[in-house]
Amino acid sequence: FSPLPQNNIQQVFRRLHALLVEEYSGEDLQIIACPSTEQINLLLSVN
Q: Alpha-carbon distance 5 to 28, whole Å?
């Protein structure tokens, strides 16, 4: 097992978040509850 590079994880979530904001309404985004880039950065910085 080798850890994933943090940059890749951040890039994927950045793209995912941009796609979700483009395609879904504010209410749908609340239901989806995808973490923001800032939240992902906080989670990754804990380790």
A: 30
Distance CA 32, CA 28 (A): 6
Q: State the Cα angle at 8 between 7 and 10, rounded to 5°.
A: 65
How many domains, in total, are found in the chain?
Answer: 1
Residue 1 inside a domain? The answer is no
Task: Please list the helix, strand and coil fractions of the chain in percent, rounded to the nearest 5, in that order.
Answer: 75, 0, 25
- Is the model's pTM score more than 0.90? no
Give the tens place of pLDDT for each residue, 1-47: 667 677 888 899 899 999 999 999 999 999 999 988 889 889 888 75
Beta carbons within 10 angstroms of residue 40's beta carbon: 19
